[in-house]
């Protein structure tokens, strides 16, 4: 074997080794998370969103949703779709803290955070998370399961979807058309 062929094979082996090392390093930086709700959409019968003294309850009857605090409002279907497609599909991406004394810093303590509770048709609580929006990270939120001390960062900013205003979720029904009385 000539020297130039030996050098070429050595360089090729070195490049292949660097490529494989780079691939392994890249995989270690990939963040995987678990969705906060892994059940079916049909499992959910009631959703309770609360922040401090304010709360909003959405209840499903067959296939239609209604706001219990404002039954005269028609539900905005696009908001319900966002609830399922975005809010309940958000992932706990990265563990941030395991210390209870850090909850206030991330806004996930009982008084500062926004609570999301989901119930089934037997009124059994399926999930209960507290979302926080503290800090300067506008692409993510902090989240904590009520039964855990662990604070996670989410893969998406869904804090605005936890709105407890009835007008965010519902709209006034259309006014009836007046009949033409001129004949």
Number of helices: 4
Strand content: 25-35%
* Euclidean distance between termini CA atoms: 107 Å
User: What percent of residues adopt helix (DSSP H or I)?
Assistant: 10-25%
Main β-sheet, spatial strand arrangement: 1-6-10-9-8-7-2-3-4
Count of extended strands:
11
Q: Please tell me how large the radius of gyration is.
A: 25 Å
- Sketch the topology as an H/E string, one letter per element: HEEEEEHEHEEEEHE
Structural class: alpha+beta
Mean pLDDT across residues? 88
Structure report:
With 183 residues, this protein is of the alpha+beta class. The chain has a domain at 43-164. 25% of the residues lie in helices and 29% in strands. It has four helices and eleven strands, in the order αβββββαβαββββαβ. The chain has helices spanning 3-28, 77-87, 103-106, 166-169; strands at residues 34-35, 46-51, 54-61, 64-67, 74-75, 91-97, 114-119, 125-132, 142-145, 151-154, 170-171. Strands 1-6-10-9-8-7-2-3-4 form a nine-stranded antiparallel beta sheet, with no helix packed on it. It has a two-stranded antiparallel ribbon with strand order 5-11. A hairpin with a 5-residue loop joins strand 7 and strand 8. The longest helix is centred in the first third of the chain and has 26 residues, at 3-28. The protein is elongated, with a radius of gyration of 25 Å.
